[in-house]
Every structure is written in C-alpha cells, then in structure tokens.
Design brief:
The chain has 528 residues and is mostly helical. 82% of the residues lie in helices and 2% in strands.
C-alpha cells in the first residue's frame, strides 16, 4: 500500500482544489443536461424516474452496507482489509439487487404507479455496480487522489447523460432515457475506478481484522440509513400522496438547490474526513481546521445561496419554461436552507474523528421521528408545504450536529457569534443588491420586449419563445450581476468583514487574493 504522506495540509489543499474544479465542471455538465432533459421529458417522466431513484438510493445503503468506508478510517491498511471489503460488497450488492428486482411490484403499489415496476427492476443493476465501485473509490479517497475521482465522475456522467441519455430522450425514449443514462454512468464509473485503483479480487470472508472493519461498517450503515430517510422522506410521502407530476416539479426545484450543495460537500467533506482521520489524536489542529470552514460557509457561501433563492423564479422560467413555474418556490425555500445543510455536512467529520461516530445517528433519531410525523400529517398539502418541512428539518439537524461537534472541540457560542454576524451582514448585502438588480432587469426586459415579436423557434426539439425568455433573462442577469458585484466589491474594500478565518482559508487556495485582502484590511486600519 502507498504510505500516508506526512504533509497532510498540502495534500488536503490539493484535494480540495481538484474537488472544487471537478465540482464546477460537473455542475456545468449536469445543469445543462438536466435542463434539456427536463424540457424534452416534462414533469411526469421526471417524477417517474425520481420515484425509482428514491428506492434505488435506499437499496444502495444495503448493498454498500458501509464496509468500504472502513478503508478510509483504518489508520494502517493491509491487503486483507481490501479483500474482505470487496468480498462483502459483492455479496451484499448482489443480494440487494435481487431483492429489489423481486420487490419492484410492491414499490409500484406503494406509489400507486404501475410504470415504476419495470423502472425499479432495471435500476436494480446499479446496486451491483455501485457496491463494486466503493472499495476502489474509497482507496482513492484515502490517498486523497481527488484529481482522478473527479475525472472519472466527469467522464462517466458525460458518457451516461450526454452520450446516451440526451440522444434517447430526443428520439422519444421518455423515462427510459434517464434509466439508461443512470446505468451507463454507474457502469463506466465502476470500470474506470478499478482501472485507476486496481486491487485484489480474491475472496476473503473473515480474518483477524474483520471485527474492527465490520464495526465501522455497521456504524456507517446505521448513520447513512438515518441520513437517507431524513433526506428522502419528502419525496417518499409526496409520491404516495400526490402523483408523478407533483414529484417531478418538486424534484427539479430540489435538484437545482441541492446540486451545488452536493458538489460543495463532495469537494470539501471527503478531504476533511480523510485528513481528519489522520489527526484523530490532535483535537487542537482539528479545531483550527474546523472554524475557518464554518466561517467560509456562513460568510462566503450563505450570501450566494441567498442570491440563488431570490433569482429562483427567473431561473426556473428561463431554463425550464412555464411548465415548471411551480418549482420556483420550492427552489427558493430549499436554497435558503442549503448553508445549514453544508454546515451539518462539515460538522459530521468532527464526530467521526473524535471517537463519537455513533453521535450522528443518535442525535438525529428524534429528528427522524419529527420528520415522519410532519410529512405524514402535512405531506398531502402540496410541494410548497413539503419544501418548508424539509428546510426546517435541515436547520434542526444542523444545530444538533454542529453543537455536538463544537462541544468536542471546545468551541463556544462566543467563538461562533462573530461569524454569524458577519454572515448575516453579507447575506443582507446580497439580498439588497440582488433585488435592486432584478428591478433594473425587469425595466430592461419591458423595453426589449417591445422590440421583439413573440417569435418561437425550435432547437433540439425544444420550442423557444424569445420574447418570453427575455422576460426571465434580463431580471436574472441583473440580479446575478448586481448581487454578485456588491459581494465582491464589499470583500475587496472591506475585507475585515470577512474575518481572519475566511482570509486564512482563502490563503490556502489563492495566496495572492488573500494577501490583497490582508493588505486592504491593514490599509483601512491605518486610515482610521
């Protein structure tokens, strides 16, 4: 095995840089592909696929079980660890795939949607693909090889959705274009991951270290199952109470809010978890790493999500068209809750790396009960109510897990309060700037609209009304430009508002920018 590098800081920064670059590329690819697919397929087909993937992601927790995560947590890895994990990943993945195939009619019955039966049966193949991908993928994470992790993700997504999904959708394959794209992506990812990180395929059912790695696996399984229920219960009850059309509308708003969030978490959390696993005996270093991350989420990311929430109606209208307008309020509500979700995600590695792995699931069990009660009683009141419940649960989870993480690192409310104040100030500026830009954009759109006829053209099978598109586009551009400009100018002129933690974090990834901000802060102090 490749020895652990002593330069954890350098490796971690490199990992996050590659993850961030990969995340931006993936976001661009996925956003473009999902927009075209949504316009071609419509809410109903999207809802059918969303119902199928809810069941698939649930099954993946059983097929993966959590064995492969032990490859990251174990400090001294041997070949027997890898063989044992691979063997049981294959066994559980195959069993779950068979079980999902046989239970597909019951899933269709639950959702009152017979078309789900065949979709779930085909998607069961992905359980095998993902379970076999996990060992090699987590070995890459252990080695902080996020460059290749992101290359693999980008190529597999491109093959699945751009190479297979879009052509099938264009030629009328309907929901099956999404099924084929998902399976192709999973298969390509499995093959490429193993090529990059080959390992022994020799079976091993038990060995002396099996108990330790199984313990980690069970903890991961229980924790992930709890998190899955909390993250997917909204669509489980929505699909039961309403129909595939409503699920499709909700899913588009949810995905638009959650995709940048998931990519940010995917860029930051694995590197933080892996590096933190090597610092388990150094809580002070963990503390110094944790505070700048939380500061960056609250002061840099939260204002951007506030901007995102405000432009939601114009973004949905421009990208997806009038058929998806009901998704806009869902996007607004969920976008505002995403900073809480990221805070939660970046706090969980602290619990795992301070010997409090079980806290993540234990603290969320009461929240899980609350979620079940809320969705069961109010989930039939429409997609907006479901979004409000989901957002509220994210805030509660964030408070619970972040409080526990801060307790482990001896971080008090006095340490967090200045960060919260700065975050609120930056969010307020983002809101003011974005609303002002939208007003200017609306005025511009009225002027341009008088110059354009209601011209409709067809591109790739999609009807585009230029006059209607301008009505959405100009406020969208105005809000993004004005809100973003105010945040950027404020950061450059008043860098003290960002705080030392954020400037310190930026110095790891862009020393020149951090130095410029630091110089501006010193210059401002001298002039007082």
């Amino acid at each position: 095995m490749k020895p652990d590098s002593p330069d954890i800081n350098k490796q971690s920064v490199s990992a996050v840089k590659w993850s961030a670059l990969g995340s931006v590329a993936q976001y661009g690819l996925s956003l473009g592909a999902q927009i075209v697919l949504a316009r071609l397929l419509g809410p109903e087909n999207y809802g059918l696929f969303a119902m199928g993937t809810i069941v698939l992601t649930f099954s993946n927790f059983f097929s993966n079980f959590g064995f492969a995560w032990g490859l990251i947590q174990i400090q001294h890895l041997v070949e027997e660890d890898i063989r044992f994990v691979f063997t049981w990943q294959l066994i559980t993945g195959s069993l779950v795939a068979v079980g999902l195939y046989l239970l597909a009619p019951l899933v269709a019955q639950y959702f009152n949607e017979p078309r789900i039966d065949a979709i779930v049966r085909w998607l069961s193949l992905a359980c095998v693909f993902s379970s076999l991908t996990a060992p090699a993928s987590n070995l890459l994470r252990r080695n902080l090889d996020f460059r290749w992790i992101n290359i693999i993700q980008i190529i597999s997504y491109s093959v699945g959705y751009l190479g297979i999904g879009l052509p099938l959708a264009y030629h009328g394959a309907g929901v099956w274009s999404l099924v084929a794209a998902w399976l192709a992506q999973a298969f390509v990812m499995m093959v490429m991951t193993f090529i990059r990180q080959p390992h022994s395929l020799k079976p091993l059912f038990w060995y002396s270290g099996a108990k330790a790695i199984s313990g980690v696996g069970i903890t991961v399984f229980v924790t992930n199952l709890c998190n899955w229920l909390l993250n997917n219960m909204d669509r489980i009850f929505l699909g039961r109470y309403l129909d595939s059309h409503a699920v499709g509308l909700y899913t588009v708003g949810y995905n638009l809010a959650n995709t940048p969030n998931s990519l940010l978490i995917g860029a930051l959390q694995p590197a933080f978890l892996t590096a933190g696993a090597r610092l388990q005996s150094e809580p002070e270093r963990l503390r110094r790493a944790y505070l700048p991350i939380i500061a960056s989420v609250w002061i840099l990311m939260a204002p951007l999500f506030a901007l995102f929430a405000i432009i939601a109606p114009y973004l949905i209208g421009f990208l997806y068209g009038s058929a998806w307008e009901s998704s806009a309020l869902v996007l607004t509500i969920l976008a505002l809750s995403m900073p809480a979700y990221i805070t939660w995600s970046m706090s969980t590695p602290i619990l795992w790396n301070t010997n409090r792995k079980h806290f993540e699931s234990l603290l969320q069990l009461p929240i899980l009960a609350l979620a079940g009660y809320a969705f069961y009683n109010y989930g039939n009141q429409g997609i907006v109510m479901v979004a409000l419940i989901a957002a509220g649960l994210l805030f509660i989870r964030s408070v619970a897990i972040t409080t526990a993480a801060c307790h482990q690192l001896n971080i008090s409310i006095l340490d967090l309060w200045p960060l919260a104040i700065r975050g609120i100030a930056m969010m307020s500026l983002a809101v003011i700037g974005t609303l002002g830009g939208i007003k200017l954009g609306t005025i511009a759109s009225l002027y341009i609209g008088t110059k354009l006829n209601a011209t409709v053209t067809t591109f790739a099978g999609i009807n585009i009304n230029f006059s209607a598109a301008t009505t959405y586009l100009m406020p969208l551009l105005g809000g993004c430009f004005s809100g973003g400009s105010i945040l950027l100018v404020t950061a450059l002129i008043f860098p003290k508002l960002l705080g030392a933690e954020v400037i310190g974090m930026l110095s790891r990834f862009s020393p020149r920018l951090a130095q410029s901000l630091d110089n501006n802060a010193k210059f401002g102090s001298k002039n007082k």
